[in-house]
């Protein structure tokens, strides 16, 4: 094995470890995104997409947030700092979700055409990838902001709750 191959192998192993470490953040991000962004109360939460109103969805998510904050025994100051972050995240993700729906429709239309436009379809794929990257960054930013408000012990309590209920949809919240 040459020195260059050894360096590439080391980089490859380093990337794999980074991906393994990033997985919990990504999973949390997916959970938050599904809970806050998707159309009525139910997309990804065990309800039908047409059930409930946006107000019911908001109330449902508010209860989940309160349950998580109760679990970590968040102070009034922490609650007051965290709630606007989560509300902004919900607003941002709703917009991203709407754009995703438009791209999804465009992709279906592109595949329904008599002749496939490979360049056009690729452009839609690139747009969808950029949108998912935007969602990931938005979620990560919010997670870091909230994480900086919580104490390390509070974060560990949330992580332990998620680990204990890893196979369940709502992680006990």
Q: How far do the termini sit from each other?
A: 51 Å
Low-confidence segments, ≥5 residues, pLDDT <50? Answer: 17-27, 38-51
The sequence of SSEs as H and E is: HHHHH
Name the shape in a single word.
Answer: elongated
The total of helices stands at 5
Radius of gyration: 20 Å
How many β-strand stretches?
A: 0
Tell me what portion of residues adopts beta-strand conformation. under 5%
Give a quick account of the main beta sheet: strands, pairing sense, barrel closure.
none
Walk me through what this model shows.
The chain is mainly α and 173 residues long. The protein is built from five helices and no strands. The chain has one domain. It is elongated, with a radius of gyration of 20 Å. About 14% of the residues have low confidence.
Task: Please give the structural blueprint.
Blueprint: H1 3-37, H2 54-71, H3 76-112, H4 118-149, H5 152-164
Helix pairs in contact: 1-4, 3-4
Short characterization:
With 173 residues, the protein is mostly helical.
Q: Descriptors for this entry?
A:
elongated; mainly alpha; 173 residues
């Amino acid at each position: 094995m040459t020195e260059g191959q050894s360096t590439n192998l080391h980089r490859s192993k380093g990337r794999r470890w980074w991906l393994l470490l990033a997985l919990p953040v990504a999973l949390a991000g997916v959970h938050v995104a599904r809970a806050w962004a998707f159309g009525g109360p139910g997309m990804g939460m065990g309800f039908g997409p047409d059930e409930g109103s946006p107000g019911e969805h908001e109330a449902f998510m508010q209860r989940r947030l309160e349950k998580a904050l109760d679990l970590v025994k968040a102070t009034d100051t922490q609650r007051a700092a965290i709630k606007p972050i989560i509300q902004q995240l919900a607003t941002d993700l709703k917009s991203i979700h709407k754009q995703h729906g438009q791209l999804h429709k465009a992709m279906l239309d592109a595949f329904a055409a008599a002749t496939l436009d490979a360049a056009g379809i690729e452009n839609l794929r690139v747009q969808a990838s950029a949108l998912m990257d935007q969602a990931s960054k938005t979620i990560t930013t919010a997670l870091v902001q909230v994480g900086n408000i919580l104490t390390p012990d509070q974060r560990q309590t949330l992580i332990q709750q998620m680990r204990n209920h890893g196979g369940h949809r709502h992680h006990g919240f």
